[in-house]
C-alpha cells in the first residue's frame, strides 16, 4: 500500500509541472502515465474507504466529479510553478511578479478550500459524515505529501 501511494505521489508531482513541448509519441506516453496514476489513486482511495456496494454507487460519481474539478486546480498550480521557475532561472523575479505569484498562490488555496467545502456537503448528503470525512482526510493526506514534495523541490524566493 505504501509503495502504491508513493508511486501516486511521485506521479502527481511529476504531472504538476507539465512539459512545454512534446511530440505525439510523448503525448501518448504522458496520457498513459496520467491514466495509470488516476487508476492507482482510485485504488488507494477504494482500499481505504471500504465501501459497501450501495455506498460505492453513491460515492464514485462524486469522487469522479471532484477529481475533474481538482484537475483545474492542479493545472493552476503547475502554471504558477512554471511561471516562478521561469522568473527564478532568468533572475527576473521582480516585486510585481512576486506579488502576482503570491496572489495566485492564495487564490489557488482559496479555490481548493471552496472545492473541499462544496464537496463535503455533497458527500455528507450521499454518505455518512464519517465516510465523507474519511474520504476528505485521504485526499488531504495525498495532497499534503504532494505539496511537501513540491516544496522540497522549489527554491525560496531570492535564494
Main β-sheet description: none
Instruction: Tell me the radius of gyration.
Output: 17 Å
How far do the termini sit from each other? 37 Å
Helices and strands: which structural class?
mainly alpha
Task: Count every beta strand, where a strand is a DSSP E run of 2 or more residues.
Answer: 0
Shape: globular
Notable characteristics:
single chain; 159 residues; mainly alpha; 5 helices; 0% strand; disordered N terminus
Verbal overview:
- This protein has 159 residues and is mostly helical.
- The protein has five helices and no strands.
- The protein is globular.
- The N and C termini lie far apart (37 Å).
- Mean pLDDT is 84; it is low at 1-10 and 12-22.
Outline:
By secondary structure, the chain is mainly alpha-helical.
SSE diagram, text form:
Elements: H1 2-16, H2 24-49, H3 53-89, H4 95-126, H5 129-153
Helix pairs in contact: 1-2, 1-5, 3-4, 4-5
Amino acid at each position: 500500500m505504501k509503495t502504491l501511494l508513493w508511486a501516486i505521489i511521485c506521479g502527481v508531482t511529476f504531472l504538476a509541472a507539465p512539459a512545454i513541448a512534446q511530440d505525439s509519441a510523448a503525448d501518448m506516453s504522458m496520457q498513459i502515465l496520467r491514466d495509470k496514476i488516476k487508476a492507482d489513486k482510485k485504488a488507494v482511495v477504494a482500499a481505504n474507504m471500504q465501501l459497501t456496494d450501495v455506498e460505492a454507487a453513491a460515492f464514485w460519481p462524486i469522487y469522479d466529479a471532484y477529481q475533474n474539478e481538482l484537475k483545474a486546480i492542479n493545472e493552476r498550480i503547475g502554471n504558477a510553478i512554471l511561471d516562478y521557475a521561469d522568473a527564478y532561472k532568468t533572475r527576473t523575479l521582480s516585486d510585481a511578479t512576486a506579488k502576482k505569484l503570491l496572489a495566485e498562490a492564495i487564490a489557488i488555496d482559496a479555490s481548493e478550500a471552496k472545492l473541499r467545502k462544496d464537496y463535503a456537503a455533497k458527500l455528507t448528503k450521499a454518505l455518512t459524515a464519517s465516510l465523507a470525512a474519511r474520504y476528505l482526510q485521504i485526499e488531504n493526506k495525498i495532497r499534503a505529501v504532494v505539496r511537501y514534495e513540491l516544496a522540497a523541490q522549489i527554491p525560496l524566493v531570492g535564494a
